[in-house]
Design goal:
This protein is of the alpha+beta class and 144 residues long. The protein is built from four helices and five strands, in the order αααβαββββ. The protein has a five-stranded mixed beta sheet with strand order 1-5-4-3-2. The relative contact order is 0.15.
Length: 144
């Protein structure tokens, strides 16, 4: 016989499970891997606003970073590539590296796989890409 107002244990377990799963998704959404993917997608799409939001370039202000990305795409307008994030290594609470396989000029059959890293820094609680540390061999037009 059930008492009125009593919560069944199964309901408590379900709610606890939903809370745990939800917190895992929230933590992962703010982690370095999704930021690395957003950065690389923005680079491929030449989304200057998103790149500005996700980039650290020296001590430059967001306005200066935006100008540098605008200048970059004057020269890299037709530069096309494909990538795949293969791993993310978190070195400390505030640093990480996203490892990726990269194909430039991927429309040509002779293109070979290249491996690069996207260095990341946590700044004001948000992961950002340290653009000055990315190899220019990956993307020759990166702002400095």
């Amino acid at each position: 016989m059930k008492q009125a107002g009593r919560v069944p244990w199964i309901l408590i377990l379900i709610l606890a499970g939903v809370a745990v799963i939800g917190s895992v998704f929230l933590v992962n959404a703010a982690g370095p891997q999704p930021v690395a993917v957003k950065f690389m997608d923005a680079l491929a799409k030449q989304d200057i606003d998103k790149l500005t939001e996700l980039s650290i370039i020296g001590n430059d202000s967001p306005e200066m970073i935006h100008k540098k990305w605008e200048e970059t795409f004057k020269y890299a307008k037709y530069f096309k590539f494909r990538y795949q994030i293969t791993d993310v290594v978190i070195a400390s609470d505030n640093t990480a590296n996203a490892k990726l396989t990269y194909w430039d000029n991927y429309m040509v059959r002779a293109t070979t796989d290249k491996n690069f890293q996207i260095p990341m820094i946590k700044q004001d609680g948000k992961w950002k890409v340290h653009v000055g540390e990315i190899s220019r061999e990956m993307f020759p037009f990166l702002p400095r």
